[in-house]
Specification:
With 321 residues, the chain is an alpha/beta fold. The protein has 2 domains: 224 residues, TIM Barrel, CATH 3.20.20; 69 residues, no CATH class. The chain contains 15 helices and 11 strands. Helix 8 packs across helix 15. The longest helix is centred in the C-terminal third of the chain and has 21 residues. The radius of gyration is 19 Å and the shape is globular.
């Protein structure tokens, strides 16, 4: 069994956190991860109140283990943090923006403040906010990320943040990735795309099948899906997604796409409603090569941790005394 500052902080059996993927990490998936001994996080995304009520009710009813939820910081509207805290999450994750305006309310409610960062400067801001835990996210991750890669970013943030514990994210999909994160000084791993392809994830079967069949070579970082959906993401946070016809048509032509929204947005919305992966976005990380099947969240948590233990044992035997 692996024991780290992360497992001690939340009383976990495994140093594994479910990434709060908006619209994917619902209450059932978060509860399944928590019940398996990891930390399940509901993906609050842009903070839709109706969705949050439904999914936070679901997770709080389905587990008595610690769980949390995440929000996209720059998009937080008045009342959303307070709404989430009424469900008494053990942790709130703030990503992509300044966490300081919301930190006091989160900590006053007794929740741990987890800040996801994409560079060292953001880690300093998280420390100023009083973060209890920092997630260092590399751009191998599915969805939005910064310019830094996981391997060099994690130890840099670990050094900057000490003694505040750090968790690694980005391109981690199995026990080898978790073991590597621990060797970089992280206290665990936050994993997204691997759990996207799980039984409990809020995604159509055809999308999950795409993740199983796909390769990291099939992903690209782009802003076109944010443009067509009308989300005002800061331009330095593009998102990694599976390549499809829409991406290939518009990538690099964002200004032209913005000028054509009168026709392109309704067509995109129809495709998204139909879960048409040839047009609609499927956020996916580079590690999808390692996804071979759709599995339960419980099985994934246990297998990833067991694999990591085996890798750490193997590494220890490489040292000659």
């Amino acid at each position: 069994m692996i024991r780290t500052e992360l497992t001690r902080m939340f009383g976990l059996k495994h140093p594994v956190i479910l990434a709060p993927m908006g619209g994917v990490s619902g209450g059932a998936l978060a509860a399944a991860v928590s019940n398996a001994g990891g930390l399940g996080l509901v993906g609050g995304g842009y903070g839709d109140p109706e969705w949050l009520h439904a999914e936070l009710s679901r997770v709080s009813a389905a587990t008595d283990r610690p769980w949390g939820m995440g929000l996209i910081t720059w998009s937080i509207q008045p009342g959303v943090v307070e709404l989430a805290l009424r469900y008494r999450p053990a942790a709130v994750v703030l990503s992509f923006g300044d966490p300081r305006p919301h930190a006091a309310a989160i900590k006053k409610a007794g929740a741990k403040l987890i800040c996801q960062v994409q560079d060292v400067a953001q880690a300093r801001t998280a420390l100023e906010a009083g973060a209890d835990l920092i997630v260092a996210e590399g751009n191998e991750a599915g969805g939005h990320s910064g310019a830094r890669a996981t391997l060099p970013l994690v130890p840099a943030v670990v050094d900057e943040a000490a003694p505040v514990p750090v968790v690694a994210a980005g391109g981690i999909a199995d026990g080898r990735g978790l073991a590597a994160a621990l060797m970089l000084g992280a206290q665990g791993a936050l994993i997204g795309t691997r759990f996207y392809a799980s039984v409990e994830a809020l995604a159509p079967a055809r999308i999950k099948a795409q993740l199983v069949a796909g390769s990291g070579d099939d992903t690209a970082r782009t802003r076109v899906f944010d443009v067509v959906r009308g989300y005002d993401w800061p331009p330095h946070f593009p998102g990694r997604a599976l390549r499809n016809s829409f991406l290939e048509r518009w990538n690099g032509r964002e200004a032209e796409l913005a000028a054509a929204l009168a026709t392109e947005r309704p067509a995109y919305q129809n495709a998204a409603q139909a879960a048409d992966p040839d047009t609609a976005v499927v956020w996916a990380g580079e590690a999808i090569d390692l996804i071979k099947s759709i599995e339960s969240a419980e099985r994934l948590v246990q297998r990833i941790s067991t694999e990591a233990e085996a890798q750490l044992d193997r590494a220890a035997r490489l040292v000659a005394h």
